[in-house]
Amino acid sequence: MISTKILLVFLSGSVITCMAADWSYDGKNGPDEWPKHFKHCGGKQQSPVDIKPNDSKFQRRNLEHNYKGKHAKLEFSLENNGHSAQVTLENTGKLAAKVNGDEFVPVQVHFHWGSSNNVGSEHKVNGKQYAAEMHFVHMNKKYESSDEALKHKDGLLVLGSFIEVGDENSDLKPIFSQLDDVGEQGEKTEVDDLDISKLMPSNKKDFYFYDGSLTTPKCNEAVKWIVFKDTISISEDQIAALRSLKHKDEEGKDKPIVDNFRPVQALNGRVIYRTFKDE
User: Which of 45, 90, 256, 273 has the most CB atoms around its CB within 10 Å?
Assistant: First the structure.
């Protein structure tokens, strides 16, 4: 059985293995500096990417899962890790998302967002950036540890959902209603009544997929990416709650967590696939 507690030593943000002072989204430890300190960040299959629908190729692929209803036996915690708001899932060993014959255990959910509504997502579509992006991180069941999973291209599955600002998202309310409790870096609280089956767009058939990496150091190229075509929405109040979170900057001062996204990376010959035909 996979130990999610072992995996969570490595998972924070997309997958964060370093203290906040070791890297950041700006300043002297920003993304341009990552490859100097974390060799994988200079690799050829890095994420995120700018998705060009007209250049993508149609290929059938199904995403299945057994996330049905509210799982009372699951444990959830919400944390401000200094880079993002992260929900950690525990006791998920019997749950799985299935893609192309592999089963992946759900591990955590986190967000990337901007300082304004026209920036925030990590992936882009034809150069367009959304206000935020949610990542639902999974680990491949066939690997016994995170150390092992991070060595393989199919070690992790991340489901990415673009977020637009509009109507309030009631499915995410259990998370957003408690962001005030984790306003400062390192603060943590419990989350109740979170239905993980609703942490994705209602249309789960139409998506893009490609081989990529973690979007934070150490940037391991171990991720099967799925980015849903359909967006989800959150309200102005909900995204304001994300922007109210604080982190310690390089000088140890409290600053808002905003624009916590990595710039898009070169495809380097990779193909982006889509599961839907041309519109």
Answer: 45
CA distance 156 to 134: 16
Query: Residue 268, Cα to own-chain centre: how many angstroms?
Result: 22
Which residues fall within 8 angstroms of residue 124, CB to CB, at 6 or more apart?
Answer: 48, 49, 50, 51, 264
Strand stretches in the chain, DSSP E: 50-51, 57-58, 63-65, 75-80, 85-90, 97-99, 102-113, 124-125, 132-140, 156-165, 188-190, 207-212, 223-228, 232-234, 246-248, 254-256, 273-274
145 in the Ramachandran plot: left (φ > 0), alpha (ψ -120 to 50) or beta?
beta
Q: Which residues pair with 76 in a beta bridge?
A: 89
- Is residue 110 annotated as a catalytic residue, yes or no? no
Q: From the candidates 40, 65, 71, 83, give the one annotated as an active-site residue.
A: 83
DSSP 123: S
Q: Global pTM?
A: 0.93
* CA 183 vs CA 25, 138, 186: distances in Å: 19, 26, 9
For residues 20 and 247, the answer to whether their CB atoms sit within 8 Å is: yes
CA distances in angstroms from 182 to 77, 84, 122, 179, 185, listed in the order given:
11, 11, 23, 5, 7
- Average pLDDT for the chain: 91
Q: Tens digits of per-residue pLDDT, 88-98?
A: 998 887 899 99
> Which distant-in-sequence residues (6+ apart) come within 8 Å of 4 by Cβ?
89, 90, 91, 92, 93, 105, 107, 139
